[in-house]
Amino acid sequence: MNSFDAMVARGVRVCLEKDLGYKTYERVVGEVDKMYGISMLEAVADFGKIDMVLRRLFGRHVSVLEARIFERVLTATHGTDAEAAVSIIEPTVISGLLGAYGDVAKKSILDTVVSSALSIPDIVMRLDTPKASTYIRVRQMIQDGLLRHAGYSNANDGRRVNTYRTTMTGLLFESAGDTVRVDARLPMEVAQYSYAFNSVAT
């Protein structure tokens, strides 16, 4: 599952529900459960699954619906060879980002892995935080798409352990009146496999 798609999934789900209306949305929820046995949020986070359901129910013209929904969540440009530029505009996604970066412990973890990939034991050591609570926070941020798997390293005991980095870098929260926008950079190794990014990228 792409970490950026997982990050914007709640916003995509909200927009999908609004666009389809209650009855049609519930029909989609039922079809997701029947085909995959997962929640709607899980299907949206792994967008290929919800795409299959929508195509099965509504045919090939569903691409227009999907593009319209993603355009209400974010805008994106390819930027450099190494990074893409994204602007997140959907309030549900922004609220999740504000919640994570407003949490001192989560922000410390995100700041620690923004420029280099680290294992959870390395994060615990650098931040001098309790092991159990750090594991819980990292797992939650992986699920929310804020952190992504970035490779492996060897632990002190020789075990091979996962390393993690932030999904986005250079975040800037911008407020204009009643609206908030988040501008950020997205590594191309994330962007190139993201349904959300590739649906709106120019």
Précis, in short:
This protein is an alpha+beta fold. It is 56% helix and 21% strand.
Can you offer a commentary on this structure?
The longest helix has 18 residues, at 3-20. The protein is globular, with a radius of gyration of 18 Å. It has helices spanning 3-20, 22-36, 40-45, 47-58, 62-71, 91-102, 104-112, 120-127, 131-143, 188-191, 195-200, and strands spanning 74-77, 83-88, 147-154, 160-166, 169-176, 179-187. It contains 11 helices and 6 strands. The protein has 202 residues and is an alpha+beta fold. Helix 1 (3-20) crosses helix 5 (62-71) and helix 8 crosses helix 9. The strands form 2 sheets. It has a 4-stranded antiparallel beta sheet. A two-stranded antiparallel sheet has the order 3-4. The relative contact order is 0.18. The chain has a single domain, classed as Winged helix-like DNA-binding domain superfamily/Winged helix DNA-binding domain (Arc Repressor Mutant, subunit A), CATH 1.10.10.10. The mean pLDDT is 92. Helices cover 56% and strands 21% of the residues.
